[in-house]
Amino acid sequence: MITTDVQIKHYTTFGISAKVKQFATFSSVEELRQLLAKKPVEMPLMILGGGSNVLFTQDFDGLMLKNELLGFEITEKIGDDVFVKAGAGENWHSFVIRTINLNLGGLENLSLIPGSVGASPMQNIGAYGREIKDVFHSLEAYHLPTGEVHTFTNQQCEFGYRESVFKRKFKNQYVILNVTYKLSKKHQLNTSYGAINEQLEAMGVENPTIKDVSNAVIAIRSSKLPNPKELGNAGSFFKNPVIDKKLYDNLVSEYPDMPNYPVNAETVKVPAGWLIEKSGWKGKVVGNCGVHKNQALVLINYGNASGKEVFELSENIIQAIQTKFGIVLEREVNIV
Q1: What is the CB neighbour count within 10 angstroms for residue 34?
Q2: What residues are paired with 66 via a beta bridge?
Q3: Domain extent at residue 129
Q4: SS3 177
Q5: E strands of the chain, at which residues?
Q6: Is the dihedral of CA 310, 315, 320, 321 positive or negative?
Q7: 47, 67 in Cβ contact below 8 A?
């Protein structure tokens, strides 16, 4: 059922007040087809998942459809490899925990990331040395222009850093229906990134399991990142910039403590959080919003911020980083 003039503050993790002209949920492909058939051709369309990666700076004068497609199925087993299909509307963290409880490795480093399963390939979500592309097998997506269901392989998704064809080439052309991941009963732990080893040591774990790694990641994320139920946020607001090595060499002579992660012989990834902190923005409060005191990548709604306020804060941070370092930050969050 389509409802009109709906307040969507509680459908997004930023908790920003905004209205949509028409709103409905769908839990099957047939429901999706029926809702799309009722939409006037000229009316804008937006598909909402977990609402964890979007900032509304204005009302949306169109039809918003919230993806509530559920499902969990082991589709195939080949040796130690287990293929698991999940509905796009499934909660991401709950899905990760379910795979871990089945002793299937591959997603443990991606624990506690907010959002839905359907957003995982769209964003190529990643954390602590692991990205979705490392375990992604395929997905099915509804093609809006034709009404056909198309299958995409790992290669066809053209994954990049927080990128896929669904954010660029095929933006607003598909609705992701389900995602299949290639997980394994033979675990290959990745504990070298960030503070995972330190956290495991603090937990007294000497021979970690995938559950231990997941618990370590949860502990780290909980200590650094605010709970959206308590403080509105969308997680990491900016991407970590990849810069030319010549620029990095010039900067590191002035800032010898600048962290870096070489991408190739010509480019280096620099943590955006470090740049923001070095520019004096960490913990800064501006009106009703601000930068989180424990993680400079996270912008906060302290309760009554408008989307425009948060956007202006991000603009000021981008300008400050460009002026100080000659680096242009790119937002990871989608702006409406």
Answers
A1: 12
A2: 25, 48
A3: 72-224
A4: strand
A5: 3-7, 19-26, 45-48, 54-55, 60-67, 72-78, 81-87, 126-127, 130-131, 136-143, 149-153, 174-184, 242-244, 261-262, 267-269, 285-286, 289-291, 299-301, 334-335
A6: positive
A7: yes
Do 200 and 87 belong together in one domain?
A: yes
Give the whole-angstrom CA distance, residue 124 versus residue 121. Answer: 5
As annotated, the active-site residues are 162, 236, 332
Same structural domain for residues 187 and 139?
A: yes
Task: Kindly tell me the sign of the dihedral angle through the C-alpha atoms of 145, 121, 43, 33.
Answer: positive
Strand partners, 267: 244
The encoded tokens of residue 120 equal 């995982």
| 116 and 214 co-located in one domain | yes
From first to last of its 336 residues, the chain has per-residue pLDDT tens of 888 999 988 888 898 999 999 999 999 999 999 999 988 888 999 988 888 888 999 999 999 999 999 999 999 999 999 999 999 999 999 999 999 999 999 999 999 988 899 989 988 988 888 899 999 999 999 999 999 999 999 999 999 888 899 988 898 899 999 999 999 999 988 887 768 888 888 888 888 999 999 999 999 888 888 888 888 888 889 989 988 888 988 888 888 888 888 888 888 888 999 999 999 999 999 999 999 998 899 999 998 899 999 999 999 999 999 999 999 999 988 888
Instruction: Point out the domain boundary residue: 224, 252, 267.
Output: 224
Which strands sit side by side in the sheet containing 19-26, from one edge to the other? Answer: 3-7, 19-26, 60-67, 45-48
Strands 60-67 and 19-26, bridge-based pairing: parallel
pTM, full prediction: 0.84
Residue 188 and residue 183: Cα distance in Å, rounded?
A: 11
Q: 């998704």: which residue's tokens?
A: 157
Among candidates 91, 139, 84, which has minimal Cα distance to 116?
Answer: 91
Q: Which of 42, 67, 92 is the last residue of a domain?
A: 67
In a domain, 229, yes or no: no
